[in-house]
Amino acid sequence: MRMKHVAAVAAAATLALGMSACGGDGDGGSGNGGGKGIVGKAQSQKKLVIGVKADQPGLGLQTGSTYEGFDIEIAKIVAKGLGVDANNIEWKTTVSANREPFIQQGTVDLVVATYTINDERKQKVNFAGPYFVAGQDLLVKADSTITGPEGLDGKKVCSVQGSTPAKRIQTDHPKAKLQQFDAYSKCITALEGGQVDAVTTDDIILAGYAAQSQYAGKFKVVGKTFSTEPYGIGLKKDDKDGCEKVNEILKAAASDGTYKAAWDATLGKSGKAAPELDTTKLTNCGSV
Amino acid sequence: MHVFADPTNLDAYLSGFLWILKLTGASAVIALVLGVLLAAFRVSPVPVLRGFGAAWVNIFRNTPLTLIIFFCYFGLFSTLGLTLSDDLNLNNFWLGVVGLSVYTAAFVCESVRSGINTVPAGQAEAARAIGLTFFQTLRIVVLPQAGRAVVAPLGSVLIALCKNATIVGTIGLIEASSVMKQLINDNGDAVIPIFLVFAGTFAAILVPTGYFFGWLANRLAVKR
Amino acid sequence: MSTGVLYDHPGPRARIRNAVLSVAFGLGLVALLWWIYTKFDQAGQWEAALWKPFTQSATWTQFILPGLRQTLLAAATGMVLSLAFGIIFAVGRLSEHWWIRVPAGVVVEFFRAVPLLLMIFFIFYGVPFLIQGPVTAFTAVVAGLTLYNGSVLAEAFRAGIRSIPGGQSEAAYAVGMRKSQVMRLILVPQAARAMLPVIVSQLVVLLKDTALGYIVAFPELLARGVNDLSANYGNVVAAAIVVAVIYILINSLLTALANWLDRRTRQRAFRIPKQTAPDSTPAGGMAVSEPQG
């Protein structure tokens, strides 16, 4: 009798462990093949794993089974330039906190996820680009009187915990009352409900939310940026060849119109003209 | 340890744990009162009260605290318009206290109810025989005896409450876990010492608390 | 003590009083719920546009179910590992050798005292420095759950083993069993049975705790079903209500299982009457269940 119980428990345990083993798929093993970087992997395997945001409308948003947005289009251009068909891209959801680990661990080959190039991150990963230059801005209700960060004194402003925009508010505008959540969608909901007076992060992300159909006419982006956020494409730190190749692809995209087409199909829908991709500002891929 | 030599970081560390202690203290009092009341509901002769107590326990005990705290902000505050303070941080603090209290009360209720189960039936029967009403039976005879049996489980609930207070960080209160996150983000080279300081502080508060309740439970145990 | 003995069988007056109380309290409750309903209505939370996504299959197949799968996967793995951790450290704390007993005690006390949120965060961001290698979000969540719930379970098992009458191990030694055999064949199986309700309720806690994985962006039910979904439709409150209902259903099932197991073990109590007598189990058992969020 007791043995039967032990056997049943053991069977249950094996089952659970088996389930977890299946669940481990995609958590590893998708790193670059044979140390050749993404160029080699794209050539030999004809597929890529790309980390993107899943919760940023207009940039990287998971809608049902697909992802859409400007970052997604940029990623497709890069993949195509590396010889990988858009259908062979495996999208992987990343959030701000796990972008460096995902690249370092090889969980993803590339990260195109509103990824600001800065010196601290350059210690850990390599950056191609920038393919876009954003800046911190404010999203307010359509009838708000706030016209810039100076108008935030005594006002409630919302951002994501530990994010650079949140920190900048704390240090540069200490009189603003900062409300922090773990996701921008919660900030937007609080703004809609009137619990906060403004939401702050990169202008392009705010524009993406403002353009969503359910918020049509409710919000406006103030349009007075107070920082510079060059968005780069993250790769492994030692993959200099891959980085240079991606920069070449971006240069080509700027001249042959595919960059503009990517903009027009996504963020440009709201009528905003495509920005100029300044190819002279592309990174040197870590060379000194 | 250079991280904590910086006075701003030290202040952040202290204020983070101060929030945790305040959250724990306020929620512990409310949850205890609420939990005992719910336990009384659950053993009362009125079916609606029993049902209410059972529903409370089943709903709040089975929902992740993260979601309960979320509903305190977006349900109580945003939608129902319940403003608990004009100050943004204090408002979030009190919303957190509400969330922690209703959640913890469910566990207090269940502990007290099983405490009531440890009181021999003869005690209540004798109380009824001398003509005490339900509330008299509960208040004078059963709960005082049950109280001794639930010291240890309530100690565990209190310890869990203190740790759960970190979840109030999700609605923006900069308590200890949010401070630790921030410090780790800013000082990538000192992740391990930072963690050890925060974890060590929790251990320094909670391990003695655990031993204290164990000692108290032994002292107060009903010898049968 | 069954709670029925707390009050007399209601007579005519008591029945009327109870009915009046029921109606009054019931009406108050309905009024409160109605007020909440109208407030949500005023805030536009019942608007069809916010709830329509839940009638579309993509919402379920792309957001909620994948999230649920990760939640259950992490919970199942965490359950198996924390049971193993619990047994090993419970036995360790009962060891005769101080150099096993003391470290086991320190480990258990430490992990019980550290909030899970801190633990998961540290495993994800700190441990890679120690092991010079990556840690996935899944590993971080499962490891955190294992260390914390395993420590709580270790205390449950220890209380369970100590609640077994001394005669059991004396008899086992008398028939010539070694210490490890006594533990493995006599004490642990009985302790597990005596502590079954506590163990299962701790597993409910473990399942809920997977929600803390949001801190390392583990794509579980809360992250996928609330954050990612509402980025599409701006329906964060509606999504949270749906996800809460799912959690309540799953955990109620687990709790029902716990109650069923409890009744089943109690029915068998006649076979090993002493340690399942109502006085000993709840006291030892309750002492160790911990409602971490």
From TrEMBL, chain A:
Record GO biological process: amino acid transport
Gene Ontology cellular-component annotations: extracellular region; outer membrane-bounded periplasmic space
Pfam family membership, one: SBP_bac_3
Record domain Solute-binding protein family 3/N-terminal: where: 47-270
Signal peptide residues on this chain, from the entry's feature table: 1-21
SMART domains: PBPb
Keywords annotated in UniProt: Signal, Transport
Domain of life: Bacteria
Homology family: Belongs to the bacterial solute-binding protein 3 family.
Protein name as annotated: Glutamate ABC transporter substrate-binding protein
TrEMBL record, chain B:
Pfam families registered for this protein in UniProt: BPD_transp_1
GO biological process: amino acid transport
GO function terms (MF aspect): transmembrane transporter activity
Keywords on record: Amino-acid transport, Cell membrane, Membrane, Transmembrane, Transmembrane helix, Transport
Recorded family membership: Belongs to the binding-protein-dependent transport system permease family. HisMQ subfamily.
Transmembrane segments: 20-43, 64-84, 90-109, 149-174, 194-217
Descriptive protein name: Amino acid ABC transporter permease
Gene Ontology cellular-component annotations: ATP-binding cassette (ABC) transporter complex
CDD domains associated with the record: TM_PBP2
Location of this chain's protein in the cell: Cell membrane
Membrane topology designation: Multi-pass membrane protein
InterPro entries: AA_ABC_transptr_permease_3TM, ArtM/GltK/GlnP/TcyL/YhdX-like, MetI-like, MetI-like_sf
UniProt domain ABC transmembrane type-1: residue ranges: 17-208
